[in-house]
Amino acid sequence: MFVRELEAGAQVESVLVVRAAEVRAKRDGGQYLRLMLGDRTGSLPANVWDEVAAVAAIAIVGTPVRVSGCLQVSGRYGAELKLRALCAAEPGSFDLADLVDGPPRSPAQMEVDLRELLATVQDPDLRHLLDAVFGVDSPLWARYRAAPAAKHFHQAYRHGLLEHSLSVAQAVSAISATFSGINRDVAVAGALLHDIGKLDAYAFAGSAIEMTDAGKLQGEIPLGYYRVRRLIEHIDDFDTRTAEAVLHIILSHHGSLEHGSPVVPCTREATLVHFCDNLGGRLGSFDRLEKELPSGERWSRFDRAIGGGAYFAQPTVAQEAQEAA
User: C-alpha angle with apex 10: 51 to 92, nearest 5 degrees?
Assistant: First the structure.
């Protein structure tokens, strides 16, 4: 059974992938291991209280492990897997496709949609800049296409960055036709490039997503700013005002100083990208929570990204099929 299909009290005997592993201190001075285990439908937390060092050597982030245990659900902590045993998963005993989350649209279809959007940008400087990143032969394109959008909260899977940035850019493109005074080309380019710093801020291998040293020391916004600025500096006679407009979008897209932006949005284009980015991230969190929702439930657990529980009025296709069986 997939994580999404488990109900309270269910006995679990399956292979799950380690999404997070952290050794923490107990109140008595000892240690325990906090794990996040999951498959393509969702994730479950679990604690290891005994033989912590031995289990930590096996439960490496991104590694499939075979677990046995019982699903417990409480009002305070939500769903949690009470482990009886954990060991390395034998090769051939699982299908990796069952463990790895991904976007609802295929990468091939997203690339088609991206190239259609790129073709609508008329500004010659921005076309050169976007080609340096998204050109078929660009070394950045292969990385961008595969990268995740986050470590946890939204689109934290392969191709997540492409999914998120494309959806933000498509929203920006549509809204630009509604409000006057917006430079559509600048807004679309900024939307496609706003999270490019994540190429350097995250290390991604298999299903494991970790912050790099550069990501921890500098942050994804400065990393993105400097990458795009360097690209601009290699394009002859790039318009100064256009460069400032795009770089400002990257620097301000988190919207406020307390959320990590060194400046707040000061242009129409930056304001539009910020709100579309925020909307995309919020709705991506709903997608994540819906995947984790236990069968038959309508309310998710409390989630820090949205500041509360998420309500799903209609059952999902998987829930409808299970309830009808």
Answer: 65
DSSP 32-60: EEEEEEEETTEEEEEEE-SSHHHHHHH--
Question: Measured in Å, how far apart are the chain's first and last C-alpha atoms?
Answer: 15
Whether 56 contacts 21, CB under 8 Å: yes
The per-residue DSSP string of 226-244 comes to HHHHHHHHTSTT--HHHHH
Query: In this predicted model, what pLDDT tens digit does every residue of 47-95 receive, in sequence order?
Result: 999 999 999 999 998 889 999 999 988 776 778 899 999 999 998 888 8
Helix and strand numbers (H, E) in the chain are 12, 7
- Ordered by where they begin, the domains of the chain are 3-98 (2.40.50.140), 107-285 (1.10.3210)
User: Counting Cβ atoms within 10 Å, is residue 105 exposed (0-12), middle (13-18) or buried (19+)?
Assistant: middle
